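WARN no homologs supplied; continuing
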Amino acid sequence: MDAYLAQYLSCSRKHSRILGKKLKLLTNTLPTTDILHRNYPELITQTMQCFLCNSASESNDHFWACPVVYNNLRNVTLEFRRHLTFNIVQDTGIDSSTVLHFLDSTVFFNWAISGRSSLDPLPPRDSTLIAIFTHFYKSKSNFQVIY
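OK structure emitted
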């Protein structure tokens, strides 16, 4: 079986790990030191400062408010925006300013260019990306080039 496809089977170990991380993320149960201290008080005797910014106690809530996480996600989002724009222009011939205007109007990218200082609320991902692709790739053959 193709290794790429195997990771998406519901019985694969990699798929289970990915789903587990997503579930912990959505339910605010990532193993931050506040959760570890609550569950294992003899092992983790106190909550610790954030390993990234060292300015607040590490917690699930702080993870999304941490300025280091915010900057990293913002940089990744802007880099993705740049690559996506380049690919759409290459594949469709649409002018880059038109593509950027549309992308910047979506909540997926708008938070990163708007200068917001936090990720609250988190920008939606999957449905917005599908809308972007269907907006620019009207025919199935064009869509398969990216997907």
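The longest helix spans residues 67-92.
OK
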